[in-house]
Amino acid sequence: MTNEIAGFQYRLTHALPGVFPGAHPGQMLGAGQLFKRHEPLIANPDPRRIDLRASLLDPFGGYRVRVYQQPSQLTVYVIADLSASMGNKLTLVGDFVAAAAQSTYEYGDRFGFIGCGPSATPDWLVPACNLPHTLRKLAEQLRRYRVGGDARSLRSVAPLLPKRRSLIFLLSDFHFSLTELNALIPPLAGHALVPVVCWDPSEYATLPNWGLARLKDAETGRDRSVFLRPELKQRIEQAYQRRRVALGRRLRDFGREPLFLEGRYRSAPINRYFLQHAL
143 in helix, strand or coil? Predict the structure, then answer.
């Protein structure tokens, strides 16, 4: 993978049921360094792992061997909101996809992508794989893509995901009614879900104090002209702060802590997120 975009570190606290060796704690027994338990030699016939001390303590006089927990492979998916309101955030989305693909490649995991607009299309559906060239091309296409419409297909994305527990990044600006989360989050509850809130500070933090501006709802197409002044600018900033608090509170009701990425991609907030939150 390319090194232009810095990858990030991720982890899950629960052991994975996967049978393929990887870099994460697994439920399978096999080649690993984490001691799991003792077993009779007849159940695990590997004389190299005979534990003499445990064998001497066996009341039945049998040989005991040490068995280890095998690290497992993890499947990582990025689900991206490709509605019209995400138009000025697709560079961030493309960079995140490139970083996630690079990170999974380094971990030896599998990475998949689902892009959600008004309907799910094969153009934005990449099944879980470990193909650097395909994923690098996907990130470039996202940076150049011109979005339109809403993202109603987010509600029907769950059947496209693996049955086994996976790490899911849900990228969106969440500029929709919070009641929509009632249909969006519960079907993903079986996975380790990270809601990634992509915001553009130019929408609220860099507005001028004075001037005439034309505001347009990217998804409905409705617009209006407003005369900016310090009081109105402050109200807009406060509205975003209230939205941030309300969104965080609503996602925590589902047991999901949001990860806010504003402006451009940076790996540090993602690394900090996985250090602070157990998934």
Answer: helix
